[in-house]
Amino acid sequence: MTDLRIVNVPDLLAAQAAKDGEPVHGAPATGVGLHTNGHLGADLLHVPAGERFAVHTHPGDHLLMCMEGEGTISIGEVTYNVQPGDLYLVPGMVPHAVGAGTRDHVLMAIGAPHRPVASPTRMTHTDWDGNPVDAPVYVGDGDQ
């Protein structure tokens, strides 16, 4: 019989992701792994107020849910505001960027294939066409 692990997400939110989280590879954020079976996994990510991820891709699909704070998701060079309770899907290999607003932004990220938050294979910095780049591209820095 498989042991079942239950995680109460509200108990973990911003405080634990910020305090106990490990750095997210390639981004100004911290994260806590919640669950993984080696293919599908869930993480809690904390993006401090005013910080943002460069344009990037992931090897697989990601569901993201805003748990706390405010933020943005930019995809297809269009930026959308998100607030607690908003859920969205970013398909694998689609360039996108996430940012925090004036308050810390806490997201639950569920992805397959799953990569730990500190893994160098979790994300690849790209331009809006999905081409890998040496220098990160940011939303609002003349890249649109």
Automatic annotation (TrEMBL):
Q: Name one Pfam family in it.
A: Cupin_2
State the residue spans of region: Disordered: 116-144
Q: What is this protein called?
A: Cupin type-2 domain-containing protein
Which source organism does the UniProt entry give? Actinoallomurus vinaceus
- Per UniProt, residues of the Cupin type-2 domain are 45-102
Q: Which domain of life is it from?
A: Bacteria
